[in-house]
Specification:
The structure holds 3 protein chains of 3 kinds. Chain B is mainly alpha-helical. Chain B contains 17 helices and no strands. By secondary structure, chain C is an alpha+beta fold. The chains are: A alpha/beta, B mainly alpha, C alpha+beta.
Chain lengths: 984, 453, 174
């Protein structure tokens, strides 16, 4: 697959760009009268590029059909994500085809916007810029998101030309504490890169490293390597955080300290290691550490944090015993006013355990080195309200939404000319006077360097949909208008800039960039950290209040994903709620306050308050409530206008590193009297011993006992099953099915699956699955063909409970109950072992869905695909994302997963055409392809040597509801867990 | 039976043949205000149903209350309800005919008409519950351009065959029985009515030859209808029993459903005959003992149904299958407890009153009880379908379903549809079988002893 | 037999009876006298009349039998042949799996059996017929019995005697 795909991966030459990347508007049916070389109708063209959905900088391969990007997959060559991609990356397409994009320059005219030409816009802005420059120093501000590479650096040059250095690379999640802590402990203000793959033992202090923290996909890959059960062993992962999220679900043990005391736990553990002689530090540093840590003895720490003494000492033993181990910390949700101390403590843990240089290394640079701190933004806000800024340009970031309270808006209003370079009418753009819409990254040229040595290329995959203009070109244009020539000689467009910066561009483009393993910087411990004070973080608000955790959403990130219906509808991996903003309350707290699921409550912090729906959740401490960041938009588009924004409850308070303290206030909850059904996909959170998602203690797994459950069939039943199987073998009854066919099957390793839901989004993208909206999810009419079921195991009243997760999709049963009940053969069995579903035949009796024990058939209650229908799911350009190889289902038909049968057939035909044999792994369903932890293996069960058969033979293998004799085509490998009090 | 019937005679002398003709044919007189008012209500109900269905066709099943995993709801519930209603008709006309029980003569025509119209009503639902109702005919196995036939392994196709056969045969049965009566009407009628009825009567002349073949035909139709009536509801029950859904997948279903069908059917017969008797002053023909016999039939079938309920729960417990147990525990004590207990109260407890002769022979009581039986039997199907589906194998997908106004509208429409046909029928055809009522009477004799032999 | 009857132009007479036993009496007499073309009109079928006339058992049952068997055969043939026409496996069951087909066979048995029974009745009873029936009187569908006798001139007049003797309320010529 990979190899052949790479033959197809194209670089965009100017000719290719002109001929290849047409948007192919519906009315023009002959754009390919003179076909270009890299475009054959019906045959996809792939472009290698780089994902811009978060600063991690994953490499992507964009699949285009007839000039339209229809699917994004990870770039297998790329060192960051090695062919995998998260849900947000998958959803970048919906950013490109966003029906609410700003399609051309616009000027505020009183309360509404009026369209203007680029010429007008640029003249106007250039004039203002010139005036500002002559008015004095630093009167022009340019706020962008995290940037790197030549185009990003050019912005500084450009700004300098207007006598300003007010350049902010503003990211809501900027990890200042980690950088500051590195400075304090290693004298190097940088974000280290963590090698989860090598770690034998992972200790996380509130880092959601599988969701939004740093480079989630890269970390997920590593985490699966170490924490996935292999050769009878696996790493142990302990999550130390007051709120257990999706990352915490993969933890073998959950320790819930008081909020604001994570650093004390870490220091307590470090101290215990040193005292226990487990420290790998020698010489003077050892004595210094010993001295510094002395005051964090287990008793004191236990008293301050609420973590039992024995737990601290056990974790210390386990952590130091395992080598190399890895401690990480500094998740945004737990970024309180002692966040830097947490990061410092984590560094010290890694130092004493000897992980520095092994699992913790410092690359020569990373994208975060240049990202501004929140304190810098505060500075800008101050300057703006002081009237020191005449022109402000905002690009690729939305401070009006992510800045706590309304301080930003007030200050921003004082700026004379506010220019937005966003292609979306988000909160910040709404505050601006002029919008100069940028291309979407899938229409742009760029070079990004997420970490030193990795140069990722961004190239256009489609001719621009709208009259947008890449910001680089705009800046050059503005400079020219203002009579300043800042661009390098002969450079007028981004493409030329990229070509100038990257030698051999055309040979690199098919690969998506170039990467050289740069040697990490050597670091040694400094002692500056000792000057910091190590006390529990303070919280504003009443003492009896509940500490508010504002949790970054793995789907919406800092809110930038909010106008993508896929990301809104993919259930939150932990909470399983869609489209709404909830507030997580511990069952006992909820009982005390007399609140139940779906109660709308006013979450109040001082004078500020937002409304959210109560979600009773055992994964938070009794003294904590948690709300997801990302919803509560007041602008940004049709899908974004729902829920509430917890950041509105905060003050722009920073910690010692200048990071915003997301975790700063105690709130009070009060019922408003309203009730709304939660738009959750969860039916029951307990699987009542039905063995759907199975956990195996590592002792048993290591002993090869598999999932260790008793035989589900009685003797009589087994005989009946055997007899049935024997009778099925009769050729006479099989007809054409008796011939030689492959049998497509799948295995899913639950000890690798983290529940990240990337597969869900990939499935949406590949199979034209409609999103149904909040009111339909409430009626459990969601259409997603693959869902992650999340069951609690054990007693969730304390912290000693596990989460069993299972991706549930069509099991492609050999004896499928859904098939024989269909009167019209819409559901039938294909000779290669799939449960075919012929949409055109279906009359919609829904009998198949009733009879499916796995409940993986989905019914089109509405005409989701019909323009103008009440629940139309693909408004505007979103239709252009639809996969031409897959039918868009009409109302009244049943649909379901068929292992991406269109990919199977494409590969088979392709092989036939090329006269080559299909090799194992040549076919990969969308879910398996994107799975960051590589939990899904797909293949032919009739091919003895296939990877599938190898993993099917694993002792942990089981099928769901085996007693029904449906003979599922999906084998699950049960998740292996270290028992809490157990061994590393 | 006659023994206990004696004291209940509401009137002294047996009617003569002539009186029978007069009294029964009188029911065809032009309708009164009551009939017209009823018809007005019915048309209103029909338009409500029509509107709801039109809306559903336009926008899709999303307008209903369906909440996956409950993919079948009140439509299939009401379908089974009407099929059940349809059963007592054939039972009374065919099985009691074979058993030669005399009391059948008075009630069978109404019951049979009810059967036909109930099937006509039931037949609507498999179509209008479809996601793509406009393609309903694809379910029928006919040669088509897709080269695709029906899947005869699907219980739904069995349904098509069973229901359509049942409709055809019971309609035939009704029409055949009507022929001599229509002839009698023809001979009384004048003008255009005479011409119309002569056509319908097919030239029947009551000759000994006609009677000879007619009686044979009638006997064999009865013989064929008897296994049919038992099979139809068995097949309907297999729509559920053949599925693996816990709460459906049970061998008891066929007899359980047949008993329930007869139970609900007799209930509906009472519900219909009580007003009919009053409205048309047929006290001489629809005697208390007839109602009492129907009541006894209800009592019998009610106990069978009650026993089936008990068996279901017992087996669920006895099987030791946790999923089965969970399903039935949920049925009785889960979110749907109200439906389950309505069903048990109406079908098991309230009919117990029929043990009491006073109740059994009091038409007001019987009418009220029969209403409860109808309600209870509708809820039985609702409980079986909704509770089982909403609480299946996959806990993650459990959900709670309630019908919404569109479904209610269509159910109202179905009742109106049924009533419309019945109201029209009783105005154009005798609601009692003239010839058979006569048959049941002693023939006119010169000598009281009865001559001839 | 007494003196041969005088010539008589009539070909048939119908006697109208108000009671059953009179009718039966008349019939018994006529049978005894060897009249063979007798038609009885009666509001209801009466076994007494059948006993006197003792006609052969109606052949309708043959129609039922043949129709039923045909239906059964057709039902199975239909299900099996269409399954083989396009072989699709569902639920791992044999392409031709007889148990479910039994239901189709059964329903077809009943359906075609019933319809052919009705057809049999129509054929044998010569229905529908729309010409006037000789000697029919609307009262025969209400409360009167009618005995219609055909025969030669002599027989007719003798029949009239018998009918009157049996207590016919009136005897009409045909």
């Amino acid at each position: 697959m990979k190899r052949r795909k790479f033959l197809q991966v194209a670089g965009v030459t100017s000719a290719g760009l002109a001929a290849g990347c047409g948007t192919g508007e519906g009315e023009k049916w002959m754009p390919y009268l003179v076909p270009s070389d890299d475009l054959v109708p019906g045959i996809p063209t792939y472009y290698a590029s780089t994902c811009r959905e978060c600063p991690a900088g994953c490499g992507i391969i964009v699949k285009t059909r007839e000039g339209r990007p229809i699917k994004i997959e990870g770039n297998p060559e790329h060192p960051v994500n090695r062919g995998r991609l998260c849900a947000r990356g998958q959803a970048a397409l919906q950013g490109l085809y966003d029906p609410d994009r700003v399609t051309q320059p616009m000027k505020r005219d009183g309360t509404h916007w009026k369209a203007i030409t680029w010429e007008q816009a640029e003249t106007e802005v250039a004039a203002a810029l010139g005036a500002a420059a002559t008015a004095g120093q630093d009167r022009v501000a340019f706020v962008s998101g995290a940037g790197s590479g030549p185009l990003d650096h050019f912005t500084d040059t450009w700004l300098a030309a207007f006598r300003s250095s007010r350049r902010l690379r503003y990211e809501a999640f900027a990890y200042e504490p980690i950088r500051e802590a590195s400075r304090l402990t290693f004298g190097l203000a940088a974000v280290p890169s963590y090698d989860f793959g090598a770690a034998q033992y992972i200790l996380s202090f509130g880092a959601d490293f599988l969701e939004t923290w740093l480079a989630p996909t890269r970390q997920a890959i590593g985490f699966a390597e170490s924490h996935g059960f292999h050769d009878g062993t696996m790493a142990k992962f302990v999550a130390v955080e007051p709120r257990r999220g999706m990352t915490g679900y993969s933890a073998d043990e959950w320790v819930a300290p008081r909020p604001g005391t994570e650093h004390l736990v870490a220091l307590g553990i470090a101290n215990a290691i040193v005292r226990g002689g487990g420290s790998r530090v020698t010489g003077g540093d050892a004595d210094a550490l010993r001295g510094f840590l002395a005051r964090f003895d287990a008793d004191t720490v236990s008293g301050q944090t609420g973590v039992p003494k024995d737990v601290i000492e056990r974790l210390a033993r386990e952590f130091s015993a395992a080598s190399p181990s890895l401690a990480v910390g500094g998740g945004v949700a737990h970024q309180h006013q002692a966040a830097t101390q947490t990061a410092v403590a984590v560094n010290l843990l890694n130092i004493v355990a000897g992980n520095v240089g092994r699992t913790v290394t410092f690359p020569a640079g990373s994208v975060f080195d240049h990202v501004s701190t929140f304190r810098d933004l505060n500075g800008l806000v101050a300057a703006m309200s002081a009237g020191a800024v005449d022109v402000a340009l905002v690009h690729g970031t939305n401070p009006a939404f992510t800045f706590p309270g309304d301080g930003f808006a007030a200050a921003f209003a004082k700026v004379r000319l506010k220019v937005s370079l966003s292609s979306y009418l988000d909160e910040t753009a709404e505050l601006c006077d002029i919008i100069l819409p940028d291309h979407h990254p899938l229409e742009s040229w760029d070079v990004v360097e997420p970490i030193a040595g990795v140069t990722g290329l961004v190239q256009p995959t489609v001719r621009p949909l709208h009259q947008t203009k890449q910001t680089f070109d705009v800046l050059v244009g503005l400079a020219n208008h203002a009579g300043k020539n800042v661009a390098p000689a002969g450079v007028t467009t981004a493409r030329e800039m990229v070509a100038r910066a990257v030698p051999h561009l055309d040979t690199l483009l098919p690969h998506g960039g170039t990467w050289t393993a740069g040697a990490p910087r050597a670091v040694r411990m400094t002692r500056d950290f000792a000057r910091a004070t190590f006390e529990p973080a303070p919280f504003s608000g009443p003492n009896e209040g509940l500490v508010l955790l504002a949790v970054p959403s793995p789907m919406l990130y800092d809110g930038r994903g909010a106008n993508k219906s896929w990301l809104q509808e993919v259930p939150d991996p932990a909470i399983k709620i869609t489209w709404q903003t909830w507030v997580e309350v511990h069952p006992e707290t909820a009982a005390r306050l007399g609140m139940a699921n779906g109660d709308e409550v006013a979450v109040t912090a001082g004078a500020r308050k937002v409304n959210a729906l109560v979600c009773v959740y055992p994964g938070v401490r009794r003294d904590v409530v948690a709300m997801p960041i990302g919803r509560g938009h007041t602008a940004y588009g049709r899908y974004a206008l729902n829920g509430a924004n917890p950041l509105a409850l905060l003050d722009p308070v920073t910690d010692s590193s200048g990071a915003l303290a997301f975790c700063q206030v105690r709130v009070t909850l009060a019922r408003t009297g309203e009730r709304r059904a939660l738009a959750t996909t969860e039916g029951s959170a307990r699987q009542m011993g039905r063995g759907i998602a199975r956990l195996t203690p590592i002792r048993e797994a290591a002993a090869g006992h598999g999932e260790g459950r008793e035989e589900p069939l009685t003797e009589a039943e087994r005989e009946a099953v055997a007899a049935a199987a024997a009778s099925q073998a009769k050729r006479r009854d099989l007809g054409p099915y008796g011939q030689e066919h492959p049998k497509w099957e799948m295995t899913i390793d639950l000890s690798r699956c983290t529940g990240c839901s990337a597969c869900v989004t990939a499935c949406h993208a590949e199979n034209n699955i409609p999103t149904v909206g909040e009111d339909q999810v409430v009626r459990s009419r969601e259409m997603s063909w693959i869902r992650i079921e999340r069951y609690y195991e054990g007693d969730p009243s304390g912290t000693d409970w596990q989460v069993a997760q299972v991706p549930m999709l069509c099991q492609q049963c050999a004896n499928a109950p859904c098939e024989p009940v269909c009167p019209v053969y819409a559901a039938y069995h294909t000779p290669d072992g799939l449960n075919g579903q012929i949409y055109n035949r279906c009359v919609g009796t829904r009998y198949c869905a009733n009879n499916c024990p796995y409940k993986v058939r989905y019914f089109n209650f509405w005409d989701y695909g019909l323009e103008g229908a009440p629940k139309h799911a693909f408004p505007g350009p979103l239709t252009w994302q639809l996969n031409p190889d897959v039918t868009v289902r009409t109302k009244g038909v049943m649909e379901k997963c068929t292992f991406c049968v269109q990919r199977i057939r494409f590969a088979q035909n392709d092989a036939r055409v090329r006269g080559i044999a299909l090799t194992d792994g040549a076919i990969t369903p969308a879910c398996a392809q994107t799975c960051p932890s590589g939990a899904i293996v797909f293949g032919d069960a009739h091919e003895p040597g296939s990877r599938l058969n190898h993993s099917k033979r694993d002792a942990r293998g089981y099928t769901v509801f085996e007693q029904l004799n449906t003979k599922p085509g999906i084998t699950y490998l049960s998740r292996v867990v270290h028992t809490a009090a157990g061994e590393a | 039976m006659a023994a206990m019937a004696q004291p209940l005679r509401s009137h002294a002398p047996e009617p003569t043949y002539a009186e029978v003709n007069r009294d029964i044919i009188r029911t065809l007189d032009p309708p009164g205000a009551g009939w017209l008012a009823g018809m007005a209500v019915i048309l209103l109900g029909l338009s409500i149903g029509g509107y709801s269905f039109a809306k559903q066709l336009k926008y899709g099943l999303g307008v209903t209350g369906y909440t996956p995993p409950v993919f079948w709801g009140t439509y299939i519930t009401t379908f089974v309800f009407w099929v059940g209603i349809a059963h007592s008709g054939t039972l009374i006309s065919a099985i009691l005919f074979l058993f030669r029980s005399g009391w059948r003569a008075a009630v069978y025509r109404a019951a049979e008409a009810m059967t036909v119209f109930a099937v006509m009503t039931a037949g609507l639902f498999p179509v209008l519950h479809l996601g793509r109702a406009w393609f309903a005919y694809w379910v029928a196995p006919y040669p088509n351009i897709r080269g695709l036939w029906s899947n005869f392994k699907s219980p739904l196709v069995w349904d098509i065959f069973a229901i359509s056969t049942y409709l055809t045969v019971s309609a035939t049965f009704l029409i055949m029985g009507l022929i001599p009566d229509v002839a009698a009407i023809r001979d009384q009628a004048v003008g255009w009515r005479r011409r119309v009825y002569s056509v319908i009567a097919l030239g029947w002349r009551n000759s000994n030859n006609e009677w000879r073949h007619f009686m044979r035909m009638y006997l064999f139709l009865a013989g064929l209808s008897t296994p049919l009536v038992l099979s139809v509801h068995s097949v309907v029950s297999w729509d559920f029993a053949m599925a693996i859904v816990p709460g459906w997948h049970a061998t008891i279903f066929a007899p359980y459903f047949v008993a329930g069908a007869i139970f609900s059917g007799c209930g509906m017969v009472i519900t219909i005959l009580v007003p009919l008797r009053r409205g048309f002053h047929l006290e001489r023909y629809l005697e208390i003992r007839h109602f009492e016999n129907l009541a006894k039939l209800c009592l019998l079938t009610s106990t069978i149904v009650g026993y089936s309920y008990f068996t279901e729960y017992f087996i669920a417990w006895y099987s030791g299958n946790p999923i089965e147990r969970e399903s039935f525990y949920y049925r009785a004590f889960g979110q749907y407890w109200w439906a389950t207990w309505t069903m048990i109260t109406c079908n098991v407890f309230i009919p117990l009153l029929l043990w009491n002769k006073q109740v059994r022979t009091n038409l007001t009581w019987l009418f009220v009880i029969s209403i409860f039986i109808n309600i209870g039997m509708w809820f039985e199907r609702f409980v079986i379908i909704s509770t089982s589906l909403s609480h299946e194998f996959e806990p993650w997908q459990w959900a709670y379903y309630l019908p919404n106004h569109i479904e209610v509208g269509i159910i109202i429409g179905s009742f109106s549809w049924f009533s419309m046909w019945f109201m029209l029928f009783i105005k154009f055809f005798p609601a009692l079988a003239i010839s058979e009522v006569k048959e049941a009477l002693p023939p006119p004799q010169r000598a009281p002893a009865g001559g001839g032999h | 037999m007494a003196t041969p009857p005088v010539m008589d132009p009539r070909t048939g007479v119908v006697g109208v009876f108000g009671d059953l036993d009179g009718t039966v009496l008349a019939l018994r007499e006529l049978k005894a006298k060897g009249y063979d073309s007798i038609t009885v009109y009666s509001p209801v079928p009466r076994h007494e009349i059948d006993e006197v006339l003792d006609q052969p058992v109606s052949p309708v049952r043959l129609f039922t039998l043949i129709g039923g068997l045909t239906g059964c055969a057709l039902g199975f043939a239909y299900a099996i042949s269409t399954s083989l026409d396009w072989e699709l496996i569902t639920g791992g069951k044999p392409i031709v799996s007889l148990p479910p087909f039994i239901i189709i066979g059964f329903e077809c048995t009943i359906l075609i059996g019933a319809l052919s029974t009705v057809a049999g009745m129509f054929l044998n009873a010569r229905l529908p017929k729309f010409r006037k029936a000789a000697g029919y009187d609307p009262r025969f569908s209400a409360d009167k019995f009618g005995v219609l006798v055909f025969g030669g001139p002599a027989q007719v007049s003798a029949a009239e005697q018998i009918l009157r003797a049996a207590g016919a309320e009136e005897v009409n010529n045909v």
